[in-house]
Specification:
Helices cover about 30% and strands about 30% of the residues. The chain is built from 9 helices and 11 strands.
Length: about 270
């Protein structure tokens, strides 16, 4: 179901890579992923999260701090039992691996624009097809997926709709207005207020919100490394001042995690 990112024709396996009828060829990296991000589709030399950000997220997530979130995502994926699924913006693969474990019979794909992220992610679940690719030009065929996951990731709604088979859906996982509120109060003089439902205005015709829920729990971050990693893996790591970030790292922090799970079906 892979398509060529240059000409959009079907890709087939050849030797240690894939190729299309027009001869565009993409070799599989030593780690196991395919790089389907042509240089003309890059906005920078190394787009996406850098090595430091990826490593911070890996340490934090492997510490189990967001384990309830990953478990709920996996359960919601298992309930829908897709034949083929895709994690859009998979990062370093923590949530992707949980989905893969919950969907052992399904054909799974995962992509991110960051080479550093995908290099690490593909070790978590080698049975999946791991891709460096743009979420605005996903190299998969139209109507090829029954389940899409988008976890803390930007989303191209039109591209998501293109990928979904009729009756399939998108599980969008992201922060509610209370997410990391205590952290944001320490970092900014004025905490930006935003609506939990603002993303609903972006949903295209032909897709509808079929299910929504919020998962909330409290984190007690007693280790300085955990607090530093949380900052590094969020936009607050570069938005807030150095002084405010240092103050957060210096003292134990109790913070609320409040995550929305919204299921949008194509109809």
């Amino acid at each position: 179901m892979l398509t060529c990112p240059i000409c959009q024709q079907a890709l087939v396996a050849v030797d240690n890579g894939v190729s299309c009828p027009l001869g565009h060829r993409f070799d599989r990296a030593r780690q196991g992923y395919l790089n389907l991000l042509p240089v003309q589709h890059k906005n920078s030399r190394d787009p996406g999260d850098n090595q430091a950000m990826v490593e911070a997220r890996r340490r934090f997530l492997d510490g189990g701090h967001y384990a309830p979130l990953a478990a709920r995502l996996a359960a919601l994926g298992a309930e829908r039992a897709p034949q083929r699924w895709l994690d859009i913006g998979c990062g370093e693969g923590y949530y992707t691996a949980q989905l893969a474990a919950a969907l052992p019979e399904a054909e799974g794909y995962a992509l991110d624009i960051s080479r550093e992220a995908v290099k690490r992610a593909c070790r978590r679940a080698p049975q999946l097809t791991w891709l460096i690719a743009s979420m605005a030009r996903v190299p998969l065929a139209d109507a090829s997926c029954q389940f899409l996951a988008s976890v803390f990731s930007p989303l191209d709604w039109q591209e998501a709709q293109r990928l979904l088979a009729p009756g399939g859906g998108l599980m969008r996982v992201g922060p509610s207005s209370d997410h990391l509120l205590q952290l944001r109060e320490k970092l900014y003089d004025q905490v930006r207020d935003y609506s939990d439902d603002k993303h609903l205005a972006l949903v295209p015709d032909g897709m509808r919100l079929a299910h929504g829920e919020t998962l909330s729990f409290t984190l007690n971050l007693s280790e300085a490394q955990d607090r530093a990693d949380l900052l590094a893996m969020t936009p607050h790591g570069w938005r807030a001042s150095a002084e405010r970030r240092a103050a957060v790292v210096a003292e134990p922090l109790e913070v609320t995690v409040a995550i929305r799970f919204d299921w949008f079906e194509r109809h």
